[in-house]
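[Automated response] Your request has been received and processed.

Submitted sequence:
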Amino acid sequence: MDFSKTTAAVIGLGLMGGSFAMRLKELGAAVIGINRTLSTAEAALRQGIVDSIDISDLKHADIVIFCTPAKATLAFVKNHLPDFRSDAIMTDIAGVKGNLADDIRQILPPGIDFISSHPMCGHEGEGLSRADPDIFRGANYILLPDKTNRPESVELLRNMALALGCRHVPSITPEEHDRHIAYTSDLTHVLAAALINSTSLKEDTKYFTGGSFRDETRVADINSPLWTDLFLANRENLLLEIDRFTESLSAIKTALERADKNTLHELLEKAGKRKRNLTAADKI
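Generated structure:
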């Protein structure tokens, strides 16, 4: 995909918004950056991450990428409808979808196409200083098209995801998305937070950690306001996944309590096999 004649607007210049802006600039696009805190937008402009922070330039944006929480995205669209290009393609990256896409489509004029999406990537920490153009490399990028979307708009976002460096671009419904994400994203953040909040963590724990502990607690350095809202927005699905995880953990605990070597071995063998299958499938 040739981005040299494309203008993209990124709304929200935090970790993900900054990463989008950096990578799109690398690909040759002109990038408009809008942020609630002006000093962040000004920093992005000084650093060459974006080309403009003037909201009046939104009318030039072919693609508008919302890297903001769902409520903020809906509010921005409502407040700036006259500012968008009449045939713009919009997308968001909210971690929980709910009815966001339907709510936005209801207020958009006919020419603007909104297609929800979710790049499955990130880093620990938050903010523009943590942005990284390589964050998309090898990631999954989920599209949530609706029957009302123009096929060429969906294809453009698919090609953009691949150009960013993403490996797989599956298409699913918002309901399917939120069910999957409760397991692969929400639950993993819950577990990292619970592990790091354990009373077993002491001042000298840092002298006894290895790769496994670092890997499993990496995302515990979390954007707490954002993830609080995400957990609550996907509460029913997340509670179900916590119950399923508790059941799986209890099976291991019971085997340990009974010194049941055979069952413990079987559970670990099952985990190893499933992980190898998952890794092999990811390489396809």
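Summary generated for your ticket: The chain has ten helices and seven strands. The chain has a mean pLDDT of 95.
If you did not submit this request, please reply to this message.
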